């Protein structure tokens, strides 16, 4: 039992929390902005897979790491455009279109990977992002390794939370986005175009999701392999509900989730005679439990999943 | 000229929409095959030959169509009632695991027909039980079933891994993680001697008929459709929403569980964590291509099975990665969505 407690105060645990949280932060922000504008984006799992593959591939073919992230974001935005066109102007079922996008993006990622990369006994690797080592700061006991020695995209993710929180809650653009998710007809009456706002948000959100995927292959690991996203996208969809569609709470949710994930990984090595699968199940069951807990006070955007047609009530 | 929504869509129009969607998907995928440096026509001909070119190929394709037909039916009945069951993959695995467990521990002295019938019920019960959880959470706490069913897929596959490495491990599998097998006496008999095609094909066809009867000829079927069309209006008309949704969940989960059970009793014998190449997710595509109609599900499952089995053979012959099958199937889902939209409107002068 004391061993389980010791793990708690271990700096490596808390450093791992931020690392594990990074793809979730990108993903949950991406899902959040889509849903705030009124579009459910179940393409997330596939978009993350594609982002992971294309970001890695770009670096593998010779670009630098940041260009890799940029390529991933651009491809993510393109897939988002497809989901946006299908669900906003055409008004198709957001559930089915999103699942179709997930199946399509993941299959395309695997296909292109197989086509371009020759895989031998083990998948080829790239030189990934190294943890930053901020002078002096990273030498502070405990806090140093946790906050000042992360891979650079982790700081980008934290910055994204602040930017999204500010834009969404404190600017006219954010007001227009939130209004599009609540009442698109009001937006229209203001002389704004809800269709364009929704498509723009889905593209932005999908770009963020792809960044989350790309983090896996360019920072957390150094290669791409099938099934590597492992349901992180679906967990992000659950986290958005848990965060009641607020960027700040979304960050807390992602950190909380990553904490349990990092803790169960370490607990596996301490606790014996318990099948490791039970530990691996915990994050998924936890997400379901969180959904039940917040269900009573969920404030769903009123026009979420309701297609907008001009002049139609 | 203006667009007007059709009040009803004839089945010929639905079939036409599916055909157009499939053709468009194949045309898009042709670009990707071209990128691999292979003539798409050659690739598609190889695919057809791989799936339909010989007696053996056809039986292999139909064997693959069996689980797709059942998961397709599972998605169709659920989506009709707007119950978004995306958990067919998990229900498939739990059904498979339950049947392997029951089929191994049943007394071998039991008559084979009774044993098989019991196993099929066990598979259905396991799948139904699994979906009843998310359905209950939706009814009781208003928790979106999309997320819960998706997350349960991961939980179930981990559970299967736990069981086949632990209590249900096959000691004769030389360390390979595989469950104990279903007793020989309770395996589904072969339909065509010397091939893998088994009696599960007939069970799947019968299920399509039964599902059609339920949705077209019973009060429950009408209530389920009403609940999907407009839940509030349905309740106003006296439909009990909780009972209807739970009934739909039990039927849908049961069909997906049966798919797993039949795969174990008919093809694999024991359970592994890789026995499904995404049958649950492909079932959604099958259901959409069928416009959620049971007869369409039979046709669409044969199409999807043709793509999957044919792509393996085509990949061996031409070197195009077999993932092209997943691309074609996913594209067909997206193009079908658009085709369904267009077919539900008509142009009025």
What key attributes describe this structure?
heterodimer, A: 313 residues, mainly alpha, B: 349 residues, 2 strands, globular
Description:
- The complex is a heterodimer of chains A (313) and B (349).
- Chain A contains 13 helices and no strands.
- In chain A, helix 1 packs antiparallel against helix 12.
- Chain B is mostly helical and 349 residues long.
- In chain B, helix 1 runs antiparallel to helix 13, helix 4 packs across helix 10 and helix 12 packs antiparallel against helix 13.
- The longest helix of chain B is centred in the middle third of the chain and has 30 residues.
- In chain B, strands 1-2 form a two-stranded antiparallel ribbon.
- Chain B contains 13 helices and two strands; from the N terminus they run E-H-H-H-H-H-H-H-H-H-H-H-H-H-E.
- The chains are: A mainly alpha (313), B mainly alpha (349).
- Chains A and B meet through helix 5, helix 11 and helix 13 of A and helix 6, helix 11 and helix 13 of B.
